[in-house]
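step: validate -> pass
step: tokenize input -> pass
step: predict -> running
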Amino acid sequence: MKEYYTLLRLNRKEYKIINVKEEKGIIEVKLCSKKKKVRCPICNTFTGSVHCHARPIRSKYLDSCGQEVNLIIHKRRFHCYKCNKIFTENFNLTSKNESISNAVKIAIRKNLLDYNLTIDSIAKNNHVSKYIVRKELEGATSTIPEHLKNLPMVISFDEFKADTEEGKYAFIINDPIHKKVLDILPKRKKEYLIQYFTYTENRHSVKFVISDMYEPYLLVTTIMFPKAKYVVDRFHYIRYIMEALDKIRIRLQKTYNEKSKEYKLLKNKKNVSLLRKYGNDVNWWVEVERYKNSHIVKMLPVDIIKEILEISDELKRGYNLKELFLDIINHAVYEEAEVQLKNWIDICKKSKIEEFIEASGTIERWLEYIVNSFIDKRYSNGFTEGINNKIKVIKRNGYGYRNFKFFRKRILYIFNKQLGGGIKNGRNNKQIKK
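step: predict -> pass
step: emit ->
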């Protein structure tokens, strides 16, 4: 019997294993308490008077050596002479009126923190129903408020594709400085967001709001956060410039025969990535492999880019405009950024390249908010984009979530390790985190 105390991680001083047997591949462990006296829950007095034995309770326990384990708990009913009450002794292994042990609950909550695991797989791993897993998530997230009353000085907005019963898109609010997901909302509509933020008590304390070039978010910021500066995320406005260069490449590619050298150079994905990369991020003098003349050859990136840009003077000028823009983004300081970007916009207009004239027009319209991104490099939606990618994994693994409230709780629980609802009569939340 001694080895079972170790395998099941039971306190030998507190519990006594009466019997162990295996039935249909499940190990059943009968046990009782070794305590001679217990404290009365009514008057808080110790008593050792056993009135009778309660009906044994079957409780699911953690797997041991790859086998499912059930505990058969024999509880005693005590009589308190001081208050004349009869009560059942309490076991720390289980909660009141629960058919699963606290150890299994803790295991379920740990599994729920893994965004790669679905509700179904967690239920199977712990030999419980999906209802039990959902119930544990509800308990763990019971303290999550419906509305945020206080916000940090820097927040970020974005949307992601949710496809729940509430609609196609959901709205996410993050703290990009402290890397925390603040809340998930079912809609991204301007009217809904304005109504939601009316519950926020410290709206005037918010100094920066980071988002993309979506006008409703700018209007929400202007109305609800009058003292905040709107910051356009770098990734979003850089993407406009990359797309402008890509449009030139695609336009030129269509003018050549599919078997021509120029078409293959412009079509090759590795060459396309070389065009999109910032020149300072490429090691031009380290050979790379390319497919050429029906076999693999080693070439220098500097020779590849030279060969591509020789195809068209327009492509070369577009590439140089992209590099000049990225030079400004990577090296300009806040005080100089506006002037340098305005000069770049003027060059684009004079270039007579349609794609860059259009892209520079977008940059010009949002210039004030783009310049704000130079105040602090930490003010970006990088953290938010990373969270959105993980949310896609959660959604894909679960084959989608129709219930928005449940989806929201799962996301907030995973990214904030929200353990608000404790396990009664069991281990505390700090132990769950470990």
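step: describe -> The first helix runs from residue 2 to 7.
step: cleanup -> pass
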